[in-house]
Each structure stands twice: as structure tokens, then as C-alpha cells.
Amino acid sequence: MPFYREPKQFTPLSILSDKKSVKNCLHHSIFTSRLDKYVGEWKNDLKHGKGLFLTISGKLYEGDWYNGYRHGFGTLCYRLPNGTFRLEYRGDWVRGKPDGIGWCYYRNGDIYFGFWRRGHRHGYGKMWYNNSTVYVGYWYMNDREGLGMLVQDDGNRYEGQWKSDKRNGIGRFYHMNTGQLQEGCWRNDVCVKSKMLDIDVRQFCVRPTQYPIPQEGLQNSRKILQESELWLSMKIGNIDEQLKNCLD
To answer: How does pLDDT run along the chain (248 residues), one tens digit per residue?
Structure first.
């Protein structure tokens, strides 16, 4: 009597080839259909670990990957016409977008350092503009919003509230050339109500005002009351004396 044997399981060659083509560990020079180049680590056919990715358009990313996304710490550069690369972003990434703390070097010369969220400036950060203006404060989705300080190229500065990338709310503006302080309320970058004061270093400014602003203060109510009582008593005394003279 012949013995029963289970039939061998047949695996198609296409499935075997797909399993063998799944990339894991370190691979060199993997090209995409767009001729983008990746050199680095893989896991289950996804970029995972450390790697370098160069696009056909000249974008170069080098850093951490997680399940096919730029995730962790990494640097992003772009290629110049002479073939060299210039740094564009250096910092934290989450699922392919800047998220966390990082430096950004814009092509127009602006530099930003601070917090990011989903590829936007969000939270506390500093911006150095190409016109020598500096902003230090809070951001909301690429707009200056919250408390912040803007230092202009001429030395004048604004400290106060921001909304929708404009001065909105209570703030102070220091006129460093003339030595004056402007305190008030702003609306859409326009001061709608304020008062002016002299700062302590007015005499050392470039173009100080000729005369200082008079100091404002509350009057002494007790002194005013005493003077009014004295004046009233004198007035009553004069009236009594006039009546006495008339009766005589």
C-alpha cells in the first residue's frame, strides 16, 4: 500500500521575485522612475534609518527616515547653478515636514531660528530679515502673532502684541533717534491712540528733541483741599466783616 504524501506547495515565481526585491538594511544608489537617487537604509521596502536622497530637481536631504518619511533630524539643501549646494533647512522633521526646532535659510537672505509645526513657523522664534530688521517673538502658522519685538534697521523698535503679521493691540514704540517712548494701542500697523514720554537716555540720542516732554502726575488732593478750606474761610471772614461794617 503506497504511503500518502502531501503535495508540495507551489509558490509562483512572481511572488518569490517580489519577496526577494523587498529592500532591507543598507543599499547603495537606488534610483526611482524619476531618476531620484537614494543611498541609505531600508526596512520592508521603505526608507528607514539613515539616508541621503537627491532629487532630479537638485534637492538634497540627508538625515533620519521613518517608514518612508523624513522623520527625526536632517538637513535640506538645494543645488546652485555652479553645482554646489546651499543649506536651506537644518533641524527636526516629522512625517516629511519641518516640525520642532530648526534653522531655515531663505533664498532672499532671511534667516529664521525657532519652533516649527507642520512646515510652518509656529511658536517662539527669531527672524533676521535681509533689510537688517530683526523680529523676536511668537508666530502662528508663518504669521507674527502674540507678544513680539521688532527692531528696525534705524534702531527704533516696537514691543507689544501682534496679530495676522501686523501690530495689533497694546504696545510700545521706542523712537531711539529722538529719545521718545510712544505707548498706546495699534490696529493693523497703525497707532490709533497713544501718549509720548521721554526715555532716560534722550540726551544721548542722535537727534534728541530740543525740549523735554513735561512730566505728568496727579495733583496733591490733600493740599488742594487745605488751600480751598483756607480760601473759603478767608472769604467768609471778609463777608462777615462787610456785614458788620454795614450794620454799624
So the answer is: 566 666 666 555 555 555 555 666 666 667 666 788 999 888 888 888 999 999 999 999 999 999 999 999 999 999 999 989 999 999 999 999 999 999 999 999 999 999 999 999 999 999 999 999 999 999 999 999 999 999 999 889 999 999 999 999 999 999 888 888 899 999 999 999 988 887 776 666 666 776 566 666 656 667 777 777 777 777 777 766 766 666 66
* Residues 6 or more apart in contact with residue 19 via CB below 8 angstroms: none
Residue type, 18: D
Q: How many CB atoms lie within 10 A of CB 141?
A: 11
Question: What's the pTM?
Answer: 0.74
57, 76 contact by CB (below 8 A):
no
- Strand 134-140 and strand 59-66: the pairing is unpaired
**Count of residues for the chain?**
248
Counting Cα atoms < 13 Å in the Cβ hemisphere of 247 gives 6
Separation CA 184–CA 196 (nearest Å): 9
CB 159 within 8 A of CB 168: no
Question: Which DSSP helix (H) or strand (E) runs through 227?
Answer: helix 221-247
